[in-house]
Amino acid sequence: RLDGGQRDQLLAWVRAGGVAVVADPSSPLHIGAQLPTETVRNPVPTPLPDRDVQAEIDIDRGECTIAALDALRGVFVRDGLRFAVADDVPQCFSGGGFAFTFTRPTGSGAIVALGDNRLFTNALIRYADNGPLATALLAPERGAVVHVLVGSGPSRAPSDVGTGDQTLADLVRPGVWMALLQLGIAFVLFAVARGIRPGRPVSESLPAPVAGSELVVATANLMQRARHAQRAAWVLRSETYRRICRSFDVPPTTSIADLDALAVERCRLVPGELAGALADELVGPDQLAVLANRLSTLRDRTLEGASR
Known about the structure:
Number of helices: 10
Largest sheet: 6 strands, mixed
Oligomer: single chain
């Protein structure tokens, strides 16, 4: 991201005796920008318990004519370039007419060109002699001063960098997918196991769907156990009387005789049929069910007649 002014200042510093290490092959300062290249691509090796540098090297030392790098054995490059340079150019990690590192004098200084800059990242600097390469170039002797330049120019657009074809799902490790699959299988097995009901179905009493009906049922059970048939009959007659009054839209103080007359007029009941059912007559425990059915029939007939 160096702008034009920063590049001019850097070149002036090199001509005055500085050494610039340019590891970005796309930089205008890279001295191999116009040279033919070959691509180096390798997967990252698995770290070994006993570190074997020779097994990690994918570009060995080859013909090395740069004195500062003469002691190195080779480097590991995951995705980089090697440049076609002449035999008389100082170079290292070379072979077959291509070199990963080479230099060119510039004034009183020099520019050192590398075919990749990712070998200095945290992920790759531990492999082969990537770390010693950085030390040999940036700090060849004690007291050396290293400047890392951060440019002020515009960053590269996505079209310059390139686009990837990986998604967020590609970042999830296979073990995570396997764990999710196992959880899904376990859930299905658990549902099947819990869904199997051994033996015949067991009938259970259902809760009453009407609010407050539990209290009514409990009260009726107490009345049945205490044999309060007369009181239960009075409750049934009172409830039927109030519902018929509401259906005929008359006050709840209407007499039973007037209500019976309305039922005869509107619902075509037999005179005295409704009054007889609502009369306060004695009822035994064995007659309570008969009275309940009789009142229910009269209530349905009066409600139907009132709606009609």
